[in-house]
Amino acid sequence: MATHITAGRGTRPLPDENPCVACEVREFAVCGALDPEELAQLSALMTQVMVEAQGTVLCEGDPATFLFNIVEGTIRVHKLLPDGRRQITGFLYPGDFLGLAVHDSYAYSAEAITDSRLCRFPRDDFYTLMRQMPRLEQRLLGMASNELIEAQDQILLLGRKTAQEKIASFFLMISRRAARRGQPENPIHLPMGRTDIADFLGLTTETVSRTFTQLKTSHVIRLLENSQVLLADQGALSSIAQGQ
Amino acid sequence: MATHITAGRGTRPLPDENPCVACEVREFAVCGALDPEELAQLSALMTQVMVEAQGTVLCEGDPATFLFNIVEGTIRVHKLLPDGRRQITGFLYPGDFLGLAVHDSYAYSAEAITDSRLCRFPRDDFYTLMRQMPRLEQRLLGMASNELIEAQDQILLLGRKTAQEKIASFFLMISRRAARRGQPENPIHLPMGRTDIADFLGLTTETVSRTFTQLKTSHVIRLLENSQVLLADQGALSSIAQGQ
DNA sequence: CGATCTGTTGAAGTGAGTCAATAGTGGTGG
DNA sequence: CCACCACTATTGACTCACTTCAACAGATCG
């Protein structure tokens, strides 16, 4: 049966039955494809874990023992070069799945940006169950397909866009993803710091900061309190993101 | 039943039965997962098409009517910005599948670099069949997973590597992929021109050319005739690719 | 209230891009 | 078979977008 581990056990009593039934992100997540019976089987494998801000979820090179489903919080996924250069390959939000691109060991590290709650599944058990649930496998294939499309957009961004275009594209991506989760698409919230944004866009913190200022000065965005950014002129932002 | 269209019909008589049985790339391709019965069903959907060098396989934005399996030749997949900047997101070789990251319309264009032969499947029929063949779906999920891992490597390369590191990584990737297809891993063959390499690595042709010359001068590679490159010092190449 | 961390701004440097000329390479036809 | 053309690759000189290095400004917190 699903259990909580680490901090936060007593924050809210879980229903005696299946905790997944009441899950708020289920419709966006892998588990959204399952019927109640299948959901019960999957939840039987599941352990909920809390990871506090800046904590590690998994490490590049470690044996891939677990797969995760993000329920609350924001996760950053990154790869490192031996000399310490870092590339963030993605930010994960509630409903996102962590472990699609996994073989025997993790090819990337993942850390929590904010305090986060995740559903954790033993990889082997998950795969076994997947073999028995075509709908689960189809859903994962669909999610993998989406991630590939996003990865190719990111490849275009990194290979061919200027700093301004990268930042504008980034704002729009965050906005679109918030909308997909049913949250307001504007203003957007940026839980990650300038360094994370820089390492995601292949820039430096200084360039990110300067570009924010430029967009602010030209009234395309406005920086609000609490790491919120108002997209004041979405048309202009779209134009910039696509290179005019 | 499978048929040839366009040029090349008479090059070699197909067996009367299932042409896929004798296919040389089947073990590397999607179809490698199927039993003879399933293979026959899949091949019933299939049409072989020839695309000559520089010809178009599919166009970004077009309705995604077909999926493809590369049998012979090399394909480049790219995305364009409105002003014409191009990013090549991948090179496809025999055994590779074209259409994993596809929704209703193609999110990229694909062109043949050399004369190519492809197996073409109507997308809807392919998906229908996939629902009935768990092994096909599993295989596709595995291939999507591999592609995601490669995409993340490419993201690291584009975001954080220098020109030298990009070129060195590129040589090693081509070498590794040749080995995976059972071809010699050294010397490598580069069917694509400098412009393609530049647009794949987020560089210009000039920088690609200069970097080739640097690596040649430092005896890490040697340029042979017929677009072949000898990786003279693979250790040095690996060191460079990872940033020393 | 100082200490620490994150973000912003300034000044100077540089890796790769741009522009331009030259050198191969392969194809075609007289 | 060679002369010509078109195209791709190489090399050189110069420029620039972004980085690097450095100083400073806010926020957060014990």
Protein model, in words:
Two copies of one chain form a homodimer. Chain A is of the alpha+beta class and 244 residues long. Chain A folds into two domains: 11-150, Jelly Rolls (Sandwich), CATH 2.60.120; 161-241, Winged helix-like DNA-binding domain superfamily/Winged helix DNA-binding domain (Arc Repressor Mutant, subunit A, Orthogonal Bundle), CATH 1.10.10.10. Helices cover 39% and strands 21% of the residues of chain A. The first copy, chain A, is built from seven helices and twelve strands. Chain A has helices at residues 36-45, 123-132, 134-160, 163-180, 194-201, 205-217, 234-241; strands spanning 3-4, 47-51, 56-58, 66-72, 75-80, 86-92, 97-98, 109-112, 116-122, 188-189, 221-223, 228-231. In chain A, the strands form three sheets. Chain A has a five-stranded mixed sheet with strand order 1-2-9-4-7. In chain A, strands 3-8-5-6 form a four-stranded antiparallel sheet. In chain A, α4 crosses α7 (234-241). The first copy, chain A, is globular and about 55 Å long. The first copy, chain A, starts with a strand and ends with a helix. The model of chain A is unreliable at 1-14 (pLDDT under 50). The A-B interface holds A 79, 81-83, 85-87, 89, 100-103, 107-108, 131, 134, 137-138, 140-141, 144-145, 147-149, 151-156, 158-161, 199-202, 242-244 and B 79, 81-83, 85-87, 89, 100-103, 107-108, 131, 134, 137-138, 140-141, 144-145, 147-149, 151-156, 158-161, 199-202, 242-244. Chain A binds a DNA duplex (30 and 30 nucleotides) through α6.
